[in-house]
Specification:
InterPro entries: WD40/YVTN_repeat-like_dom_sf. By secondary structure, the chain is mainly beta. The chain has a domain of about 35 residues. It is built from no helices and four strands. A four-stranded antiparallel sheet has the order 1-2-3-4, with no helix packed on it.
């Protein structure tokens, strides 16, 4: 499953991990984050929730 939103590409490929790439990162900067803790089975869908951060 793949989701593109706000310059980020999220990908779940059934290996129990979700990978998120920040497509706005400058060249040469690691732009991928992996999420795996608490995922107990294959990832079959990804979605995005809008969260407002206060500054």
């Amino acid at each position: 499953m793949m989701l593109y939103s706000s310059g980020r590409l999220s990908l779940g490929v059934g290996d129990g991990m979700i990978r998120v790439w920040n497509l706005n990162s400058p060249p040469g900067v690691s732009a991928m984050t992996q999420y795996w803790q608490g995922i107990k089975s294959k990832v079959t869908a990804v979605s995005r929730e809008n969260i407002k951060h206060s500054r």
